[in-house]
Amino acid sequence: MGLVYAEITLINAVDMGMAKRNLIGEEEIREVKIEMMVDSGAYEMAINESLQEQLGLTFIEKRKAILADGRINEYDVVGPILVKFANRTAICSAMVLPGNLEPLLGAIPMEEMDVMIHPRRQELIVNPEHPEGAQLSMKKAKKVVRCKE
Q1: For residues 16 and 21, what is the distance between their CA atoms, to the nearest angstrom?
Q2: pLDDT tens digits for the chain (149 residues)?
Q3: β-pair partners for 90
Q4: Regarding beta strands 72-85 and 88-97, do their DSSP bridges make them parallel or antiparallel, or are they unpaired?
Q5: Right CATH number for 4-126 from 3.30.428.10, 3.90.170.10, 2.40.70.10, 2.40.280.10?
Q6: Cα(first)–Cα(last) distance of the chain, in Å?
């Protein structure tokens, strides 16, 4: 399978919340539309320092990641980010890659948006079983047993 790219919109979710509370104007919400590599083999989303700066995303923590070549690197994690593709959205954090490296969309935001890679067309598509909107699996919760003290 070759490389797959999709047009993804990234929005500062804190800005969106502030705009809903009328603390900033809608025109002040920071967002970026980019061609992003889609990588179902990566769990998280990764952006670069330039995108972090443009979106004004807040540092959350440092986290280690295993790269394709087996090396382990530590990255800043920032967010929250609203990710948009077609009629789908996800809220997530992202690891920050140094410099201007290529950003990628990983499996966790893909699952939340209920999207998939079409193998023949080599493109990101909405799940054809749920074209009207994302449908997530929620397993039946087991009854919680409380202990008496």
Answers
A1: 9
A2: 578 999 999 999 999 999 999 999 999 999 999 999 999 888 999 999 999 999 999 999 999 999 888 999 999 999 999 999 999 999 999 999 999 899 999 999 999 999 999 989 999 999 999 988 888 877 766 666 666 65
A3: 83
A4: antiparallel
A5: 2.40.70.10
A6: 57
Torsional sign, CA 20, 23, 26, 28:
negative
Given the DSSP bridges, would you call strands 104-105 and 31-38 parallel, antiparallel or unpaired?
parallel
Q: Which two tokens stand for residue 51?
A: 């995108």
Residue pLDDT, tens place only, 2-33: 789 999 999 999 999 999 999 999 999 999 99
- The structural domains of the chain, with segments of one domain joined by +, span 4-126
Query: For the stretch 14-52, what's the b/e string if a residue is b when 16 or more beta carbons lie within 10 angstroms of its beta carbon?
Result: bbbeebeeeebeeeebbebebebbbbbebebbbbbeebb
Distance set, CA 112 to CA 2, 84, 116 (Å): 23, 11, 11
Cβ burial of 111 (10 Å; 0-12, 13-18, 19+) is middle
